[in-house]
Every structure is written in structure tokens, then in C-alpha cells.
Amino acid sequence: MSYNASKAYYLTKFPSNLRDSYPSSTRFLESHLMASREDMAEDGQKVILNVYDLSHGLARQLSVAFLGKSIEAIWHTGVAVYGNEYYFGAGIQHDPVGKTPYGSPIRVVELGVTHVPKEVFEDYLQEISSRYTSETYRLLSHNCNNFSNEVAQFLVETSIPDYILQLPNEVMNSPMAPLILPMIQNLETTMRSGAVPQTPQFVPPAVLAPTKAVVSNNSAKSAEEKSTLAKTAEKASKERKEPSAGDMLDDARIRVHDEITREFAAIMANGNLRASEAATLATRRVMERHGRSDVALK
Fold first, then answer.
1. CA-to-CA dists, residue 240 to 4, 181, 254, angstroms
2. For this structure, is 76 an active site residue?
3. Which of 139, 199, 234, 298 could crosslink 188 through cysteines, CB 3.0-4.6 Å?
4. Assigned domain for 39 exists
5. Candidates 56, 94, 115, 144; catalytic one
6. For the domain that residue 114 is a member of, what is the CATH number?
């Protein structure tokens, strides 16, 4: 943003009645910006977008098998400028660059150079703070990436990469999206508190809570075994709240939940894989068994 744009922004945000009542305040603002003009012209500040994967690689491992499409990461971003990194979670937060609780970024994107004085930027953050609180945080629609995008537009009049902003749409357009809604709600609660999500939060509940369903270690799929598994799944489903009549999506969700749970328990019983690896294998097997993309309709 240029000097004139900064001045125009700041003056328009200063109430006209106060400008009339306290002309000295307006003069102070103008003199402050004028004094900074030479520094702004000579010494711009680099604006950096730091990009993190909240899932620590687990999204890439699970997404194809579980959602039927590849999700590279669960993106979190912060804007680094003036020696600090600014991000949104439990309100607008900032830490010295390199000292945020999210560790090292997996990508660093140079957004440009800003000539906005730090004081003007901090006043801007104060003004928008009422829209970025822990209560207004929404993982799918009003998150850290939306904040980073708004800040980038203010500082350098550009947007952050579209693949980051479009991630919620990619996830929710999957036919299996209802299966991960509990996980999304859990993540939203964590981010609102200002905490950093842990890896187990990115494993769907179905693969973290094995039930009492009988698990067969025999890989042969005999007709009798299939019948037994079907009856077990039906019994487990009835113990939950019955889905609404004709609601095929709910029925599929329950069915797949049970199958992934049994598969996960069987894999873990062998003791050869870690939980994240077992989760990946269990979801892959179930998706392949049902034909992935059309599993929600069977």
C-alpha cells in the first residue's frame, strides 16, 4: 500500500465529528505519515506468508483412501512482517518470526514489499479485531487463511495462493465429507483455544475407537464370513440412533464407520504398524472394497 493509500485509509477511519472537534489529532496523523514518507519510500518491509501443515503429513496419507481425492495438507498460514508473524486463532495473535507454536513452515511465499508504517498496520489490526475473535473462528469459512488473505491485501494489495483458500471446498465437496465432520468440529475447538492440533486429531473417529465387533483374522472372504460381518454391522448400527428413513448418506456413514473400525482393530491386533499407518491401511481397504467414489451411495 502506498503512502497516499495509507493516509486515505487512516483519515477515512477517523470519525468526521472527531476531526472537527480535535483538528490537532488530524494534524498529528498527517505529520506522522509525512515524517514516515521518506522512510517508507526507501525502506519497504518484506511481507512473507509462512505456510504450515497442521496434520504433519497425515492428510496426504489418508485423504485419497478416505475422501477419494488427494489433499496435500491442512493449511495454516501466518503473515510475517516487521519482525513478527501475525495469525488468527484465539483472536489475532503475533509472535516473533520463528517463534510461533507451529514450528517451521513447510513453505515460504514472498507476497511483496509494503510501505505501510508499523503503527498504521497495528491500528488496522485493532480495527478488524472484532471480526477475528475466538468466537468468530470457523474452520471452514473464517479461519487463519482468511485472515492472512485480508492482511496481505491491506499490506501489498495481493491475495494468498488460491489452493490454500480453496481447501475447505475441496474437503466438503467429497462424498465422504460427513464422515469427517466430528474431526472438523474437534479441530475448530482446538484452534479457537489458541492451541496447536495434535496428530491423532486428524484420524477420523471411526479408526480411533474400535468397538466390540468380532474381527476375523482370516483373509479369505467366504460367503459365510460375509454374512456374519453384515449381521454384526447391522447390530452395531441399531445400537446407534437409527437414521432417518431414506437418508442414504447417513446409512452409508454408519456402515463405513463400522467397517473401518473392524479393519483398524484387526490391523492393530497384529502389532506391526503404528496407529497412523493402520488408519491409512484400514481406510484404503474399505474404500477399495466399496469402490471409493460411489461408496456413499451403496
1. 62, 17, 9
2. yes
3. 139
4. no
5. 144
6. 3.90.1720.30
Cross-strand partners of 75: 53
- Average of per-residue pLDDT across 147-158: 98
Same domain? 52 vs 152: yes
pLDDT above 90 (res 60): no
Which H or E run contains 53? strand 45-53
Residue 74 main-chain phi, psi, to 5 deg: -100, 100
Q: Which three cell numbers stand for residue 174?
A: 467429497
What pTM was estimated for this model as a whole?
0.59
Q: What is the DSSP letter of 94?
A: E
Q: Quote the percentage of the chain above a pLDDT of 70.
A: 57
Q: What nine digits make up the cell of 170?
A: 475441496
Size of the chain, expressed as the number of residues it contains: 298
Does 30 reside within a domain? no
State the Cα angle at 47 between 70 and 110, rounded to 5°: 45
Amino acid at 171: V
Catalytic residue, candidates 56, 76, 94, 257? 76
Q: Is residue 1 part of a domain?
A: no
Q: Domain span at residue 271?
A: 205-297
Distance CA 284, CA 260 (A): 9
CA–CA distance, 65 with 279 (Å, rounded to integer): 10
Once rounded to an integer, what is the mean pLDDT over residues 240-250? 51
Q: Is 32 a catalytic residue?
A: no
Alpha carbon distance 70, 73 (integer Å):
9
